[in-house]
Amino acid sequence: MEHIRNKSSNNKSTGVFGEEAVAQFLLARGASILDRNWRVKEGEIDIVARLTDGVIAFVEVKTRSSSAFGHPLDAITREKASRLQRLALGWLATHRCLGADYRIDCVAVLIAASGTHTIEYRANVL
Amino acid sequence: MTLGMSLGVALVGLEGRLVNVDVDIADGLPGYTLLGLPDTALTESRDRVRSALVNSQENWPNRKVTVSLSPAWLPKSGPGFDLPIAIALLSAQQSIPMEHSESVLYLGELALDGQIRAVRGVLPSLIAGYKAGIKSAVVPYANRLEAQLMVEMTIIPMRNLSELLRWLRTNEREEEQELPLVHDEPQGGDDFSDVAGQERARFAAEIAAVGGHHLLLIGPPGAGKTMIAQRLPSVLPPLSRDEVLEVTAIHSIAGGLTTRSPLASCAPFVAPHHTATRVAMVGGGGHYIRPGACSLAHRGVLFVDEAPECGVGVLDSLRQPLESGSITIARSIGSVTYPANFLLVLAANPCPCGNFSGRGRNCICTSIQVRRYLGKLSGPLMDRIDMRVEVEPLNRVELTQSNLGESSATIRSRVIAARAIAAERFKKYPWKLNAEISSRSLRIEFRLEKEAMNFLHNELDHEHISARGLHKVMRTSWSIADLALHPRPTLADTVKAYEMREGLNV
C-alpha cells in the first residue's frame, strides 16, 4: 500500500514538474499564462496561455520519465483530442471570449534518468 | 524534407499497375493515415511496418504520418505493400538514400521481426514493373525462383529488412548465385507403361496430346480412366519459356506455387473434384478475382472425373474458355481476363452403377437411368469434345501379359515429332495446334484428301454429323496424319478420327 501511494505521488510530482517546465518554456518565449489547471467536471486544461501574436493556446502536457510505454504523445487518443477541443471551447465561453483565435498544443516532456529533461512542443495539433 | 516515396505494384487479375507510395511526415499528434483504397490486409500494414521497423532498430516517427498509394482510384489489396511503405517511410526520414526510390520496385510482406515474407503474384508484378520501365526489383527471398524467370530485370532477393537497409546504405550484399532453370521432367512418377491394355484409349490420349483435342473417357470403375488422364501430362512436350512465364504467373496469382515449382516446365495437371462450384472452375471472388481451375490448367490438362456428377452448369461454364482460350470474369470491382487454353479430359461411368459396358450383364440400372446419366453432359459441351472413347474393362490376358505398354518417354518423343511437323505447316498462321485450325482454313488450305472429304460429306448428307462435328473430325484427322507421317490426312486417318468422335452414341 505504502509503495503504491509513493508511486502515485511520484507520478503526480512528475506531472507538476512537466507542467512547470512547459510554463517556463512559454514565458521565456514572451507568452503570458492566463490559467493553470483549469478544472471542470469533464476534465482539466493544463495551461492556457496568450501568445505574442494574441492567439490563445490551450496546452496539454504529457510528462514521462521513460518512454518504455511508448511516446508520451501516443497517450493522446482521438477521444482525448476531441475532449481537449470541447474543454477549450468551454474555457472560452466561461471567460466570455468565444470567437477569439485559439489553438490546441500538445507537449511531451521526457525526464531523463540524469534529471535533465527535453520538451517536444507540437503546436496546433487539431 | 519529410516526404518520401517508393514503388510498388497493384494487381488486377494478371495485369499489374505501378503504384507510387508517397509518405508525408508532418507535425501533429502521432497518427497514421493510409490513403488509396486499401483492403483489410493492406490497412493492417501499419502495425506490421511499425513493429518491423522498430525491431530492425529503425526509427518510427512519432508524428502525423500520411501514406498515399497512387493512383488513388485503383483498389489495392494484399500485404505486398508493406515493404514499399517501409522504404518510403525511411526515405521520408532521410535514413536511407533517395537514389533507389524511383528506380527500384519493392515487393514483400513484413513480419513483425523485420523478415520479408513471400507474397502472391510476384511474377506478374515484375512484368508490370518491367513494362513501366523499371529495371530492378527487391523481392522476398522465398519468391526468388519465380522472380528469376524475369531475366530482363535485376532481381535482388532479400531475407529481412536489416539486410535490405544495409544494401541501400552501403551497396553491399551477399551475391546470390543464379539458380539454373531446372526443367524437371514429369516422368518421375506416373508413366504410361503402368497402364495395362487399353490400346484405343492410349491412342486417343496420344492424339489428344499431339493436337490438343478434348477427350471423353467412358468406362466402368477400375478400368483405368483416371490412370490414363493422369499420365497425359507426361506425354505433352515441355513448355517453352514464354509458356512457363504464363503458367507461373497464373499459379503465382492463385498462390499455388507451393505445390508447383515456379521453374517447372511440365504441363500442369488440374483435377477439380466433381463437387467444385462454377466459381472454382472458372475463377471469381470478392475483392480479388482468383483464377479458377480452368486457368490453372492453362497449357496443360484439366481433368474432370465423374463428369456427369458435376453440379448443374459447372461443366457448361467451361464452354466459353473452350471456345476462346481465355475467360473473362466480371465483378463489381472490375473485369479480369485470365488465359484458359487447356486440354479437357472428362471421365464418366456409362451409367449410375457403372457396369453398363460390354454386354452390360452386371448393370442394375433401369434403361431410363442409363439414358439420363450421360445425358447430363449437355449437347453443346459434348459437341466441343473431339474424341469419345470407351475404356473397356480389362480381361485376364491384358492384365497378366508381362510385356508392358509403351513408356511415356517413347510416346512423348512421337508427340514432339508430330507437333514439330504441325508447327512447320502452321508457320504462317497464328495457331500452333491442329485443334486450333480455323474453320476457314480447313475449307481452303487444310482440306483432307479427296476420298476423305467425300466420306465426311456423305456423313453430313445423312445427318450423321454436324457442321461443327465435321470440322472437329478434320482437325483430329490432321493429328492422326501427323503421327502417321502422312503429308495430308488419308481416308483411313479420317475414318479413325470419325470413329473416335461419333463411334459412341452419347
What report would you give on this structure?
The complex is a heterodimer of chains A (126) and B (506). Chain A has 126 residues and is α+β, with helices and mostly antiparallel strands. In chain A, 35% of the residues lie in helices and 33% in strands. Chain A has one domain (2-122): Trna Endonuclease, Chain: A, domain 1. The termini of chain A are far apart. The model of chain B has no long low-confidence stretch (mean pLDDT 88). The radius of gyration of chain B is 27 Å and the shape is elongated. In chain B, the strands form six sheets. A five-stranded parallel sheet of chain B has the order 11-14-17-10-18. In chain B, strands 1-2-4-3 form a four-stranded mixed sheet. In chain B, strands 5-8-9 form a three-stranded parallel sheet, sandwiched between helices. Chain B has helices at 40-43, 45-55, 82-92, 122-131, 144-148, 161-170, 199-211, 225-231, 241-254, 278-282, 293-296, 319-324, 367-375, 379-383, 396-400, 408-425, 439-443, 450-461, 467-483, 491-502; strands spanning 3-12, 15-26, 31-35, 64-70, 104-106, 109-110, 116-117, 136-140, 154-158, 215-218, 269-270, 283-284, 290-291, 301-304, 326-331, 334-339, 343-348, 387-390. In chain B, α2 (45-55) crosses α3 (82-92), α18 (450-461) runs parallel beside α20 and α19 (467-483) packs across α20. In chain B, α5 (144-148) links the parallel β8 (136-140) and β9 (154-158). Classes of the chains: A alpha+beta (126), B alpha/beta (506). The interface between A and B is small, with 10 and 5 residues.
